[in-house]
Write a structure and sequence with these properties.
- With about 325 residues, the chain is mainly alpha-helical.
- It has a single domain, classed as Rhodopsin 7-helix transmembrane proteins (Rhopdopsin 7-helix transmembrane proteins).
- The protein is built from nine helices and three strands, in the order E-H-H-H-H-H-E-E-H-H-H-H.
- It has a three-stranded antiparallel sheet with strand order 1-3-2, with no helix packed on it.
- The chain is globular and about 65 Å long.
- The N and C termini lie far apart (about 60 Å).
């Protein structure tokens, strides 16, 4: 698969440049603030109590990885738009991509494991395998997270050996009126891309979908049982279940959209600075931000801390 990208000064219009810089930038900054809040809240609890639950530990790791990912996405997006010729130099391009891919893989794995952990701990299934996993998941989780980091590293490092993209810095002169115009070629090895890149993000996708589906089924089943017991539609427990179902459904929606955007963006099937590429960048920046905001408002401890922080800010502003 070969994509031809024209990196002349007139390659991108000013409105598109501003949109591509500003919208993902705002999303990344918002996401870093949200993830910084999650990380700070759990770190303070860890320092005070000298211990942290497994779910909060995964949240801390996920938040830290997302802060790094969104910071790197913002830097790469800015550099690729403002310094396009330098960005497409072989060493620079590989440096940006290998870090982006490692952080992306890790982020997807951590989010999937968080969803799997919630599913195993919350979902009400009596299958022996499920019960065995519930008993052992807490002890297994540190090893699973370390294994995910190792797998992410193994799947991202091949880009340094031109496994995914080759001839990144190759150019040919193209006559253009009275001047010579360079067109840069980015060639993607389709077989290696499909085997390594797609597999690396497809496995956590399947895990996330499977765990989210099981959790939704379990919550809906429990909600129906409460309705059949005539507990009333305004019962707080039932409303909490419905909020959880909506939140998990939206998590799933964001995860799948992010998956599609990643595939299109990394496969070089879209021309640089096209509307499709801009949308992919916006979606990739929106996913960790949206997911983190939902995690804050669906987690009782984080929600209470956020409200307390808002109250304190309002009080100090009045003073």
């Amino acid at each position: 698969m070969t994509k031809v990208t024209d990196y002349t000064d007139n390659d991108i219009s000013e409105p598109v440049l501003l949109i591509t810089l500003i919208v993902p930038g705002i999303e990344c900054i918002t996401g870093m603030i949200g993830n910084g809040f999650i990380l700070t809240t759990n770190t303070i609890e860890w320092l005070q109590n000298k211990r942290l639950s497994t779910s909060d530990s995964i949240l801390m790791i996920l938040s830290c990885s997302r802060i790094l990912l969104q910071f790197w996405m913002m830097v790469e997006n800015t550099y690729s738009l403002l310094f396009r010729l330098s960005y497409n130099q072989n060493v620079v391009y590989k440096t940006f991509k290998v870090n982006f891919m490692f952080l992306t893989y890790s982020n997807l794995w951590f989010a999937a494991w968080l969803n799997v952990f919630y599913c195993i701990k919350i979902a009400n299934f009596t299958h022996p395998l499920f019960l065995k996993l519930r008993w052992r998941i807490t002890g297994l989780m540190p090893w699973l997270l370390c294994l995910s980091v190792f797998a992410s590293l193994c799947c991202s490092l091949p880009i340094l050996k031109d496994v995914y993209n080759v001839y990144v810095n190759t150019s040919i002169p193209v006559p253009s009126l009275n001047a010579t115009e360079n067109k840069y070629f980015t060639e993607t090895n389709v077989v290696n891309f499909a085997l390594i890149y797609n597999l690396a993000i497809f496995i956590p996708l399947i895990m996330f979908i499977f765990a989210a589906t099981l959790l939704i089924i379990s919550l809906k089943r429990h909600t129906l049982q409460m309705k059949n017991n005539a507990m009333g539609s305004r019962n707080p427990s039932m409303e909490a279940h419905m909020r959880a179902i909506k939140a998990i459904s939206f998590f799933l929606f964001l995860y799948i959209f992010n998956f599609v955007a990643l595939i299109l963006y990394m496969a070089n099937v879209l021309s640089a600075n096209s509307l499709g590429t801009v949308l992919c960048k916006i979606i990739m920046a929106a996913y960790p931000t949206g997911h983190s905001i939902l995690l804050i408002f669906s987690n009782l401890k984080l929600r209470r801390t956020w409200k307390k922080l808002q109250h304190n800010l309002k009080f100090h502003m009045k003073v």
